[in-house]
Amino acid sequence: MSKLSSGRVRAAIVAAVLVVVNVGYWQMASAAFVNHAQVMLTNMNSGGASAVIFAFTTSASNTGTGLTISFPSYTGGSNGAVNASQTVSTTFNSINCKTITGAANNLPGTPTASGNASTGLITYASLTAFSASSSYCGVLSGSAITANPTATGTTTAVITAGTDSATTLGIDIISDDSVVVSATVPPSFTMALSANTDSFTSNLSSGSAVGTNGMTVTVNTNATNGWALWGSDNNTGLKSATQNYTISSLTPGTNGTLSVGAEGYVTGLPTVGITQGSGAGTTSATTPYASSGTGNGSGLDGTPRKLATSTGTANGAIVTIKEYATVSGVTPAAADYSDTITLVGAGSF
Questions:
Q1: DSSP per residue, 126-169
Q2: What CATH number did the domain enclosing 98 receive?
């Protein structure tokens, strides 16, 4: 063979190779794939059952109607499985997949889907044509995947949509996808007095019962079983140090009404002065100290006596407390009659 002939043969071979290479290149370049593909398992735990939320964006040339999602590792047994019966929707737990994934559209048409447990393939039907360069999402629920693989690690999902070629993406199977959040709400009980002094509205007189201006106790508590308020009295009455004389309380723990012209002293909780606030309970005065009006109530002594109770929590519960007294015509005169009442409260948690 001449050198000229040999050169022509080599040129022909090179040209043929270039044609093959160029044809392969243009075939590869002409293939279109879905992009921004995502598959979210609602349970990533090893062996756990999961619904599937997915999204993808079509290529600029996509006008097809077919859709499949394949899980090659989900072929039954310990390797996981696809449920043959697929529940197709656009929402998961009442939230549309567009909100979850950021896709612009739900799947077109009235899609249905079925699964093949032996191949891990989920096939859609009854779709209308996809729009080019558009994002879509969908939901497969009702245990779309009956079991994740028991082995942890990365596996794959494959989405084929319309005329676009299949796109493979990775999903992960982990040992535990849950986070246990712990918190403590500490028990709380606060009590505040509106004042630490309470004087009678006028001088005591044998002609009528006289009451104090009154003071309030405000309670806030998260005690679900309620709370209570107690009172005790240092003197068991109104005592004058200069006269060394005490206007005695009526019988502590027994409701009574003062008699005009006779000595007596009581503590009372007017019903109109009790409010619950926004708590869950009901606040009320105990029977001995529930006051029906001026002069009605019960005496206090050195033993704590329960004045009010609540059946539950309290947010701004208010209890008004008043004292009432009567004197006789021979009660010793003095300007220093006084008493000290101690009020305490506690919640029942």
A1: S--PPPTT-EEEEEEEEEEEEE--SS-EEEEEEEEETTSBPEEE
A2: 2.60.40
CA distance 304 to 231: 5
Q: Which of 4-18, 32-46, 76-90, 171-185 has the lowest mean pLDDT?
A: 4-18
Reduced to 3 states, what is the DSSP secondary structure of residue 55?
strand
How far apart are alpha carbons 269 and 284 in whole angstroms? 9
User: Of 269, 270, 249, which Cα lies nearest the Cα of 258?
Assistant: 249
User: Looking at the domain assignment, is residue 12 inside a domain?
Assistant: no
Q: What are phi and psi of 17, to 5 degrees?
A: -60, -45
Threshold 0.70, pTM exceeds: no
> Are 235 and 89 found together in one domain?
no
Q: What is the pLDDT of residues 47-69, one digit of tens each?
A: 999 999 999 999 999 989 999 99
From CA 318, how far away is CA 193, in angstroms rounded? 10
How many CB atoms are located within 10 Å of the residue 22 CB? Answer: 10
Tokens of 293: 């009006």
Which of 113, 142, 173 is the last residue before a domain boundary? 173
Residues 197 and 336 in one domain: yes
Please spell the DSSP secondary structure of 29-52, one letter per residue. Answer: HH--B-EEEEEEES--BTT--EEE
